[in-house]
Write a structure and sequence with these properties.
The protein is mostly helical. The chain has helices spanning about 1-10, 25-40, 45-50, 55-65, 80-105, 110-135, 140, 160-190, 195-220, 225-240, 260-265, 265-280, 285-290, 300-310, 330, 350-385, 390-405, 415-430, 435-440; strands at about 15, 20, 45, 75, 255, 260.
Amino acid sequence: PAVSTTRKSREHYVFVSGFPFKRTWLGWPLAILTAWIALSLVPISGNWLALLSPEAHALRMEAAGMTVPPTRLDAAPSSLAPFLTLRSLWLFCACASLIFVGAHMASRPRRAERLSQLLFLAGVGFGLYGLGQWLFGLQELLGRDAAAGVHFRASGSFGNRNHYAAFMEMLLLCGLGWVGMRRAGFHARTGGSLARRIEAGGGKLFFLGLGVVFTSLGLIFSLSRAGITFGLVGCALLMLMRPAPRSADGDVELSDGLPRRKRSLSGIWAMVLLVVGTAAWIGLDPVAHRFKVLPNEWDAERDRVQVWSDAIGAVPDFALTGSGLSTFRYVFPRYRSFGGSTFYSWAHNDYLQVLIELGVPGLVLVFWIMAAVWRGSKRVRVTLREDPALLHLHTGYVAAAIAVALHSFTDFGLHLMANAALFSVILGVMMGLQPSTETRAH
């Protein structure tokens, strides 16, 4: 058994100078995507650029013709803004490194638990800050624009409520996973009646639930319709994927012929009622108004749909090489079909923007990374079958990743470094979480 365990551990780890690093199966796709981004910075001859990306060549020729005297285009990179692409490349490498750091931390359950506790406390803190902005107008106290109604929203330290909502969305779901782990471990240790659980420290669960309430209120009062919607989608996924509760001896408990899974829903519904009740007491009218006026704001919302429709026209022109990472702001004006003073630096759809900036090969590599994360996460869940507490924790991270992946269809929150860094750590934990030593021995 010792030999097989060692062999199995070596299958799941990469050893660098004798130090083990959790294998994530993301090395090749991340390395190839990094090389593809870097390749857009390499100057190529004008003839090759005209062949591979005619539109990029035309833009380069226009720029060369504006100089005094006009310059000749001998060679140029396919990226339209190499300085922005280079900066984004470094940020991408930093996020890729965070994936491996997160996986390495999660390879020891104790460290994963501490990381999750830190994320839970961060969610409570940012939720309270956002709630304070809502209740006391902290934005005005900090010198923000005091235009009518601007303080009636929570945006944390982001300034943009949608980016804040994406951040809180991830913190909420990871925090729920951690609370579920604590609750599962608590029930497994105590079992028995409700009185026995309360006596053994059920009050701790109440305060954990209160922390979830504060995090949820921060998300709700951001007034971000997409953030609230995908946060609810993530919560629904978390409930669907959560493991059945087990007793202290490891068996799935039954009570009166009903699975204990159904009985455990009482705590979840109590938390939901507490969140909704507190939000209603504070005042849900502005939140409801945001969803109620959506049909009336269709013309304004259609601008985003129009951006997608117009941006699709750029896909054939940059399909092979892309325009370069973070260059959408320079590409879109050539395809824009509507007027107005609004300047679009982002497509409000990360997948469409990747298709334009990195071309079809770049989007294929992104889908390869997503497939590798999905397969790696499934492998992790198989290893955690006998450790339901850690399975709860992993479920929270999976729900957060799926919610943000769906949210990216309508926003660009991952272009903010804070959100991208947190998302990278979440992916790392999803891929790297390992069962406890006691479970592996069993």
